[in-house]
What we know:
With 231 residues, this protein is α+β, with helices and mostly antiparallel strands.
Amino acid sequence: MSFRHILTYKWCFACVLILLPWMIFLTYYLVPGTPVSLVKQPLFNKPCPPIQSGTRLRQDFIVPEIPISELQLLFGTYCRQNVGELAGIVEIHNPNGPETRRFTIHLEDLADNHWYGVLFDPPMTGTAGSHGYFEIRGKRIEPGNEVTIWRTDYDAFSGGTLKINMSDTQGDLAFQLTGYFRGIRAAQHFLAQWNMHKPKKWTHPFWLLIPGLLLAISLVTGVYHLVRCHE
Length: 231
């Protein structure tokens, strides 16, 4: 094999080392519908009162990013199969007026101590930083078919408040708001979250470490093989 062929081969190998992690990154994070948690309050230590017909649970929140594609709630069914409905509403207050989504949850679809998700199609596309709330109301629930939503009894979520039957209650519901980002926004969000966890003494983005290390390894490997070829 000639020196020129060896040189070409080694540089191709170096390029593969540099591009491979980015190809994997783009393959996963640029796929349409990449889920990103926008608001997350997963803590809980007690259930809300049993949701009967007319019971109202309301949670306020602040949206850091848009769009919102899904609301998830942590339900308890008291280890039984229940019959009835919950009427729900999500509303975001925007400068041009509120944006609202209404939905229905059938108690038969709930599992004990499991998250249940409500998808919004199309997603809610308001203004980042807007105030919003969601409300769950019991509907056509016979005695013995009540369910509950898990919550904390302390203020774990600083961006909102909990109301039970329109009375302020200390604590927050266990809930998540998810956005399904598409294209480059999914990649940008991932890099921003990763960059938040870099060591404080570093002045450059943390995510530059990997391509930098790969480039250094590639250069060392290429020089090593070039030296071996001249021996």
